[in-house]
Amino acid sequence: MRIRASELEKKGRLVKKDERYEVYDIEMENLVLSMTKLFPGKSTSGHYHEDSEEVYYFLEGEGKIKLGEQEYPASAGDIFTVPKDTFHQVINTGEQVLKFMAVFEKYEGRGTKLKAIIPAAGHGTRFLPITKAQPKEMLPVLDKPVIQYVVEEALDAGIDNILIITGRGKRAIEDHFDRAPELEQFLQEAGKLVQLEEIRRISELANITYLRQKEALGLGHAVLQAREFVGNAYFAVLLGDVITMPSCMNEMLEIHKRYRASVIALQEVSKEETKKYGIAELGEELDTNVYELADVIEKPEPEEAPSTLAITGRYILSSKIFKYLAEGRRGYGNEIQLTDAIRRLIQEGERVVGYLYPGRVFDIGNKLDWMKSNIIFSLEGDCGEEIEKFLESLGYRKG
Ligand code: UTP
């Protein structure tokens, strides 16, 4: 196919567009020819290509390219070769749009938007009896069910294609995100327009689809149900009973873009608690709070735990993980464990990066965290002052 550089924008497929740049791809079997229009004063996120080299050819405008620690001026006609595993970033220092082309080997998920899976099919035994006839993902935290916070976290990170894995007794989740014509009509007639708007907003939040896990055979098995939905691309997993504050997924996406790797959020727990979580062994430090992972182990006894860093319910994973999940190996508790499949990814040489998430995590599946989340959210909500006074009357002092 004959294409003039000036035509790339018309002939290429628009794969990214935001306030920084527009990216147009032409794909061949193994290669991608990609043209970027970088706006004045903006820079690309910067990333590594772990497995392949890359060529950059500057077409228009003035800027610079960062290769590892070095920066070089770059303008029309300049060509740069980027060796494997070299951090590189382009910065537009001029007044005009900077245009450059890059040629590189196709990689997993190139040009596709990340999708999210929200597993919500567990039995919630730690929260019985409330979870007998009601999903724990629908437990209220202040005035919203837990899973709404989770969906909003995905949306906030720009992920709007969401698959919720449900199971028996979880219909309330689907109803919550569905339209409710009778209720809407009632609110309209009663003049309760604020509530009407909120109810409509919830049903229009995202493109949510549902899939049933017929038997709760573990988190790994729940994620495996999403294999077709995901295809050959990285994907996000947000546990339906975990709230992060502030949103953890935003930062994880940035890390993922930078290292083109799976990313797992971690938080410190006490030594005695390692047997409740998947625990990570850190490898090389890559950046502040970002480490290569050397291993992960599901629910180790304290004396066997390689660290006290626990997996906290937010993941970005390579679709290669489905191969290991599909083997159906049972792990801890005779369940198909996601942590075991991540371990296999690492052992097979896939890069998995740990993010030491500095925010707050509430695991709503346990009563204490659920209680704490309600206190924290209500202190920050409309009735915050009243709650503070109430807590003070019980002897609580702020700070
Ligand atoms: P949990 O480890 O909290 O398990 O699952 P659980 O079964 O829901 O709760 P307990 O331990 O019995 O109290 C973490 C997440 O994975 C989902 C859960 O719904 C929760 O969001 N999950 C777990 C599934 O979707 N399917 C499963 O088979 C297990």
Q: Main traits of this protein?
A:
Spore Coat Polysaccharide Biosynthesis Protein SpsA, Chain A, Jelly Rolls, 399 residues, 2 domains, 32% strand, 12 helices, alpha+beta, binds uridine 5'-triphosphate
Compose a concise summary of this entry.
The chain has 399 residues and is of the alpha+beta class.
Model description:
26% of the residues lie in helices and 32% in strands. By secondary structure, the protein is α+β, with helices and mostly antiparallel strands. The chain has two domains: 5-105, Jelly Rolls (Sandwich), CATH 2.60.120.10; 115-365, Alpha-Beta Complex (Spore Coat Polysaccharide Biosynthesis Protein SpsA, Chain A), CATH 3.90.550.10. The protein has a nine-stranded mixed beta sheet with strand order 14-13-10-15-20-17-21-19-18. Strands 1-2-3-9-4-7 form a six-stranded antiparallel beta sheet. The chain is globular, with a radius of gyration of 24 Å. The chain starts with 7 loop residues before the first helix and ends in a 6-residue tail after the last helix. The protein binds uridine 5'-triphosphate. Residues 119-127, 165, 213, 216-219, 221-222, 239-241, 365 line the site of uridine 5'-triphosphate.
